[in-house]
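Lab manual, section 2.4: Encoding a predicted structure.

Procedure: take the sequence of the chain (344 residues), apply the prediction step described in section 2.3, and record the output as structure tokens. A sample record is shown.
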Amino acid sequence: MPHLTKINSLTFVGKFIHEFLCTDIENYSIFQKEFYDKIIRAEIENPWFTKDNILFCLEYWAENLTQEKLSHWLSKYNFSKHKNDKIGIIMAGNIPMVGFHDALCVLLAGFSAKIKLSTKDKILIPFLLNYWKELDPSIEFEFIERVTGIDKLIATGSDNTSKYFEYYFKEIPHIIRKNRTSVAVLNGNETKEELENLSKDIFTYYGLGCRNVTQLFLPKEFKINHIFEAVFSYKEVINHNKYGNNYDYHKAIFLLNRDNFWDNNFLLLKESNAIFSPISVLNFSFYEDLKEIENFIMENENKIQCIVSNENFPFETVTFGQSQLPMLDTYADGIDTMQWICEN
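Recorded output:
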């Protein structure tokens, strides 16, 4: 178990976030006002990071940075390894604070972190890590522009950038993550509430996360209009400029190509076996036997982050509406980052 000081001080970060979320803006302290200004600036610099999306992310961390959850998460690891190593972290920036978990893993394990922030997400993580360091000066990290002088690497990027990471850091232990997405498997017996919860898995963060559902597997007689009815509460996404531009662009392409698609004026449904889909487009395909879907998922496991379903598959699934709320010990790409840090 890491020194309790690290856990205790991190719980104060969680309490700060919780109190911030529960305080009316006119009652903000000076420090809370500073944090609020950072949130506004983050949205200005990256319009995908809307205030609502950032607050959703903060609610997740307020819920998880507690003594009970942190202690439960860390209790199964052996932290006796020598801690002189410097671990580089190359962070993604597709959704708010997506690299925060990697930073927590490195710092809670007692190692020093050299962090290369994404240009799309360079405001919120430094604010909270610097606050944590004020509470516990023993944690060591620095923000860098060039990743040099490291002993290990954790990098998140695209399939393209991963090739460069693999080449440049081939001599040191590394975790290099590539493009992934998520899928949902329906059996036709889902309740109205479950289908409405599925819309959270589709639209949270505008679908930019690897845990967002981009492909639906539907039983053969499933009526497409049930999906449109379920997602109706997210109709306002079309008013977001970037999302709306994506919708207009892909609709125009589908029309030009004479593709067969379904449209409800803010989401395009397209029958396709592709598990990746662009923003504003949701792919779907019909199946007759769940076994064929099971085989498909297992064949594409290196591209799928999570599976949303009620079915009893021989692999882990997530209940409807929970894809963007992973447990602290749910790791990207199925690689236990904390164990890897402690053992390599």
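Check your result against the sample. The chain has two domains: 4-179, 181-309.
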